[in-house]
């Protein structure tokens, strides 16, 4: 075998790729304010405070965009309505968790999933004296949504952090995970966002709108660094981590879920097919697989899923305490 030329560059590690990504990324807007709100939220809900939540979970939700220009007109998007993340947030709050909700702007929101999709104006009407009121057909849904949402906000149990681009999402994830590191095993990550696998590096991106007069567009995308590996190794190594694997081909789904479990050190990988992701999922762990099915069309599969994950997280915390004592 021929020797490798001395001029060849060694392959970059995941850490090097992540560092290069963050160095080149446009700075997160209001980064200092976001960091301050995170620190205050985590400090309030740190383990050991009497009467506090059973844990803190970061739920990521919605799809990331990949801008094609720095002053973005065109972008590549990932499919995700945010339904799973929004529903799961509701059930985590119901289970007694404090939730950091990293969500795509314009995606589904907790407690708003059953409101009309076309326009919020469909929820209101003008009364006889021009006062704004809710029509009878929406009264129950709106009252429940407002009551549940205000309770979570007023009790300081829900912190919402919006993103649009892959750059914003990964910077938020880094901030949240490093802030949650102090929670140890009491922290949980629930990665329901649809994160881009490929992107255009900021430094190689066109500054202005790409002109169509130039003919066909040829573009080479770079791979997004595998941040779950970095999070697991450096940012929040003791946290309980749940990721999702969505595929259109059922023949490769479980194999890829098991690969992700080992490669990124996840506690659970939730495998689901695009064709029936609302009705059935398979929880893949180091000890085996468990299939979860929606019981009826009126139920959310997320309710069963979160119940199982809460139990697994509790067992993980108990085991960590036992390991410390021995």
From TrEMBL:
DNA/pantothenate metabolism flavoprotein C-terminal domain boundaries: 57-109, 174-309
Matching entries from PANTHER family are given as: PHOSPHOPANTOTHENATE--CYSTEINE LIGASE 2
Q: Which GO terms describe its cellular component?
A: cytoplasm; nucleus
Instruction: Please state which protein family the record places this protein in.
Output: Belongs to the PPC synthetase family.
Q: Which gene encodes it?
A: LOC100821221
- Which Gene Ontology MF annotations are present? phosphopantothenate--cysteine ligase activity
Q: What is the lineage of its organism?
A: Eukaryota, Viridiplantae, Streptophyta, Embryophyta, Tracheophyta
What is one process in the GO biological process aspect for this record? Answer: coenzyme A biosynthetic process
According to the lineage, what is the superkingdom?
Answer: Eukaryota
Which Gene3D superfamilies does this chain map to?
CoaB-like
- Recorded protein name is DNA/pantothenate metabolism flavoprotein C-terminal domain-containing protein
């Amino acid at each position: 075998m021929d020797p490798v030329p001395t001029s060849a560059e060694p392959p970059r590690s995941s850490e090097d790729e992540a560092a290069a990504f963050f160095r080149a990324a446009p700075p997160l807007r209001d980064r200092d304010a976001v960091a301050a709100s995170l620190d205050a939220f985590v400090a309030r809900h740190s383990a050991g405070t009497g009467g506090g939540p059973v844990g803190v979970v970061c739920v990521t939700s919605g799809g990331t965009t990949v801008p094609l220009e720095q002053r973005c007109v065109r972008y590549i998007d990932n499919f995700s309505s945010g339904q799973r993340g929004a529903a799961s947030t509701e059930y985590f709050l119901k289970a007694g968790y404090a939730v950091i909700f990293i969500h795509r702007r314009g995606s589904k929101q907790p407690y708003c999933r059953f409101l009309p999709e076309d326009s919020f104006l469909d929820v209101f009407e003008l009364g006889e004296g021009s006062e704004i009121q809710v029509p009878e057909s929406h009264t129950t849904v709106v009252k429940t949504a407002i009551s549940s949402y205000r309770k979570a906000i007023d009790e300081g149990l829900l912190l919402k952090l919006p993103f649009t681009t892959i750059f914003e999402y990964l910077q938020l994830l880094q901030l949240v995970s490093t802030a949650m590191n102090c929670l140890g095993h009491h922290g949980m990550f629930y990665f329901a966002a649809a994160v881009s696998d490929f992107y255009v590096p900021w430094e190689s991106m066109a500054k202005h709108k790409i002109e169509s007069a130039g003919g066909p567009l040829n573009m080479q995308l770079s791979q997004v660094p595998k941040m779950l590996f970095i999070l697991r190794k450096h940012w929040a190594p003791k946290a309980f981590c749940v990721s999702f694997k969505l595929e259109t081909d059922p023949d490769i789904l479980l194999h890829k879920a098991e690969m992700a479990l080992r490669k990124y050190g996840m506690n659970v990988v939730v495998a689901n097919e695009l064709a029936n992701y609302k009705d059935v999922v398979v929880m893949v762990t180091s000890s085996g697989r468990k299939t979860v099915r929606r019981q009826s069309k009126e139920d959310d599969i997320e309710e069963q899923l979160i119940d199982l994950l809460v139990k697994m997280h509790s067992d993980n915390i108990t085991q960590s305490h036992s390991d410390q004592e021995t």
